[in-house]
Amino acid sequence: MIDFSQANIDKVTFHKFSVEDARSSVNENEYELDEEHETLILKTFLKPFESVAETYEFKHDIDIDLNVLAVLSNDIVEEERDFLSVTKDVHTHLQAVSKHPNIKDGDLFLIKYSGVAMNGHLHEAFGIYKVENKQSFIETVAHQMTFRKGIGSRKLDKACLIVFTDGDPTVFVIDNASVDTEYWKEEFIKVEYRKDYINSTNQFMSMTKDFITEQFPEEYEATKAEQIDLLNRSVDYFKEHETFEKESFEEQVFQHETLIESFRSYDQEYQQANDLELEQSFEISPQAVKKQARVFKSVLKLDKNFHIYIHGDRELIEQGVEDDGRKFYKIYFDKES
């Protein structure tokens, strides 16, 4: 989906951010980087986006030209204004929308990239990062130890990567806030889901999981093992195919006409309730599948005694009840390892 192996940093600066003016300040300098430091910054600020499996685009209820960050990011890529002056306006915009009392101070990094690859094409990009929590580390010089705090690539607090793809920019968002203030995505960036194959994969897999775990057991009195079997078949379809075709998916996963009809009915209700228009056919995003597969649980938990991982043939496990009322599962196998 997105590849940073050819990415370069064109411009970089940072400002001190606080909701209180007295603790907030803007930088008057850009930074020149040598090769080692550029590599470190690329790793720190781009690597976290490799695991982001949702794409967005700018929105505004009245006119997209009223979306402040959309206009400022366009100034960056078109180079209509000085980079540093645009980043100061980004800082001002963030302050203007930061009204929640739990919003933290931090360092606001702003980076202009080139060579960011999406779908085989290279693009320019603009990254905005608000670093609120720093990691502790030990620096050793000669026989002295100094304890410091700095920024690492393990987890970014808040970040936005705007990739200037053909047509409208593609926006990636990271928000690891401990308190969900929503200002970062909803007020500062102002985005909505982009209609592309990445979100189609995400949304259809989410809808399928909800049907199997909520509607299916209620309507058919299905066992946990039967639910897991359908979850496994669903994930397998997305892992084994490059293109999604709804009809073939239904036949491969649900197999029975009554279950397929139930799924189609749930699909329509889900789209209406979530204001979605799910595509009937789309390219499958491997990155989105990898993320979604983590929540497709294939573990059968029995009281506090056993966890059974079901990954294969559902016909090899049977459920029953003893005469004394105790429940059991019977598992068939050829060999153990």
Question: Your description of this structure?
Answer:
With about 325 residues, the protein is an alpha+beta fold. It has 2 domains: about 1-195, no CATH class; about 200-330, no CATH class. It has helices at about 35-45, 70-80, 85-95, 185-190, 195-220, 225-240, 245-255, 255-275, 285-295; strands at about 1-5, 10-15, 55-60, 105-120, 120-130, 135-140, 145-150, 160-165, 170-175, 190-195, 245, 280-285, 300, 305-310, 315-320, 325-330. Strands 1, 2, 4, 5, 8 and 9 form a 6-stranded antiparallel sheet that branches. A two-stranded antiparallel sheet has the order 3-10. It starts with a strand and ends in a 6-residue tail after the last strand.
In sequence order, what are the helices and strands, one letter per element? Answer: EEHEHHEEEEEEHEHHEHHEHEEEE
Number of DSSP helices?
9
The mean pLDDT is 86
What is the distance, rounded to the nearest whole angstrom, between the alpha carbons of the first and last residues? 38 Å
Largest sheet composition: 6 strands, antiparallel
If you compute it from the alpha carbons, what radius of gyration comes out, rounded to the nearest whole angstrom? Answer: 25 Å
Percentage of β-strand residues = 25-35%
Number of domains: 2
Helical amount among residues, as a percent range?
A: 25-40%
In terms of per-residue confidence, which ranges show pLDDT below 50 for 5 or more consecutive residues? none
How many E-type strands?
A: 16
